Amino acid sequence: MNIEELRDYCLSKKGVTEGFPFDQEVLVFKVMNKMFLLTNINKDLSMSVKCDPELAVELREQFPQVQAGWHLNKKHWNMVAIDGTISDNQLKEWINHSYNLIVASLTKKLQNELLNM
């Protein structure tokens, strides 16, 4: 997966927007204005995704490419090096997991707005 494929996949999800809220290097994807994925466009490709805390630890133990999120709550965020050793399907699964966690945390009103987009 390259940066264009990552971007296209994230933007294909319902209610997703992108932006640079921190600086001109960190591209952030949000669903209903809540972050679910961050990536630095000027470094080796990686992504930070939200993760269930127990799963986050399991993934860090199982995959050397997965580490605690940089500058994020390490209990809930993983940083994944996208170096070609993890399949695109696995990366998409982690993106979906992050997206779904954020959607589940939205108010019922926002969830309904998302459903009706």
Word description of this protein:
The chain has one domain: Aspartate Aminotransferase, domain 1 (Alpha-Beta Complex), CATH 3.90.1150.30. With 117 residues, the chain is an alpha+beta fold. The longest helix is centred in the C-terminal third of the chain and has 18 residues. Strands 1-2-3-4-6-5 form a six-stranded antiparallel beta sheet. Strand 1 and strand 2 form a beta hairpin. It contains four helices and six strands; from the N terminus they run H-E-E-E-E-H-E-E-H-H. The mean pLDDT is 95.
Report the average pLDDT across residues.
95
How would a textbook summarize the main sheet?
6 strands, antiparallel
CATH topology: Aspartate Aminotransferase, domain 1
Assembly context of the chains: single chain
Number of helices: 4
In CATH's first tier, which class applies?
Alpha Beta
Rounded Rg: 14 Å
Q: Distance between termini?
A: 28 Å
Work out the strand percent.
Answer: 25-35%
